[in-house]
Amino acid sequence: MRTSIYLLISLLSFALIHCKLNLNNPGDPRSSDYFLAGILNELFAPQCRVWTKSYGSGINLTMIYDLGVLPNGDLVVIGTTNEPLTGGTETKIATNTPFSGSVGVDLNLYIVRISVKTGVPVWIDYLGKPDNSDSARPTIKISQAGEILVGAGALPTELSNSISPMAGNSTSFLLAKYDQEGKRIWHTYLDSIDLTWPYAFAVDTQNYIHLFLKLNGGNNHSPISEFPSPTNSPSGETAYTDIIYGLLSSEGKPISQQYLQATGSEEVTVAIRIGDSVYFGGASQNSLSTSNAGLHPSPGNQRNFIAKTKVNASHMQETEWSTYVGSSSSLDMRLRRLLEVNGAPFTIGFANDSFGSPAEPILNSGLRNLLYQSFTTKGDSLWHSYIGHSTSSAIEGLVMTGVNPSNSETIYATTIGQQTGEKFLVSNTSIEANQPNGSPFPITNLRINRNTGKFERIFYEPNKTYPVLYYKSNVVQACTGIMAIAYQEIPEFNVSTRGYFTIKTEKTSNLP
Prior knowledge:
The protein has 512 residues and is mainly beta. The chain is 5% helix and 41% strand. The protein is built from 2 helices and 31 strands. Strands 24-25-27-28-26 form a 5-stranded mixed β-sheet, with no helix packed on it. It has a 4-stranded antiparallel β-sheet with strand order 1-31-30-29, with no helix packed on it.
């Protein structure tokens, strides 16, 4: 980007010195000033522009799973595809590894950088065959310096020149690092014979990589084989799962690993850098073995938790606290998203019953509701709110998103409704707009006051004509005042052989 700007300035300087500029007719390509007008437009036009572009042919299957933003606003997308990825009519040549296998048959993990000005792919790369389990889906993290880190479950189709090769198990964890120009700096595979999913990772301001993997108990929670021996012992409960927490350097070198265990099973599903700290969250059946562990509200039953961690003076990972939410009932909970709102953690998950004093009450106890919750940086709950249907549970999976645009007091959250078109219940019906009227899977947009947790507006958009399924998979702020919204389209509901995604940039003021 910087090189392009220098080139444009040099060309403009040359033109101004050697040419007499007349911009009365800059739209005429035959005009001597047409080229100069183009340079001026490139230099002074806004970095973020409004556009819509689709990726993937729609004949085969292309899925988007995560969306990151580079410092200049360009977007980085990761997902899976069984065809060479296209953006409009353009197919990009891979920067490191080409698409492999048979088109329409073999899934590849892909990463693509997309220009925030035009929506055109800047570069693309493929990273072998993914583990396509829902909870092994690939994720992206952008370091403070703008480097790109990729994590994913991987099947035995090893990329060459890895720091550590695959260990020969049925699945491995793939971790890779890219620069902004698409060069793969390094990649490595991490293995345990007990490895299962989900996973989460984050990169802190010192460029340490914090990795959380889930382990079965079949071999007594066998640790990650590429790391030094764990600094503590597993739970020993082979009927349940444990979490292994690994710390890696910015060069991909394993530093240390330790178990985060409790009585029963536990898992980490999300992790994020907020300021100088890393937060992670998931669900557990009892309080984790961490410092300053909060009280688990229902021992033996799965409850959501979040925790804060750091790298201490000995260059080892150290969890500072963990906190747990939920009621004393036997109904399980799930945590699905962990976001930054106002410099602190904000979570989106699921719950079937109420606890505490919610800002927006549960209106259908016993059915699965979306649960939004805001915390302080010390883990204290500020507020929590529920939304659900009257006769059916909210749809599971990663069909819900959330974002807090800068300079805004509102959290913008999205999900989809049921196939029956049943609307969501709210205690204040005056905030409802554009009722779904029975249309299948209505796209639901919710505005939440970030300070109080009160719902300010719920706006429905009709989905595409059934059996098409269309939903917002990711929403991020690309630039101040501009949001990037990623839509996944499945042309035929419950048929997993076709799909493509669309990205639309839109002014924040135009959000529903």
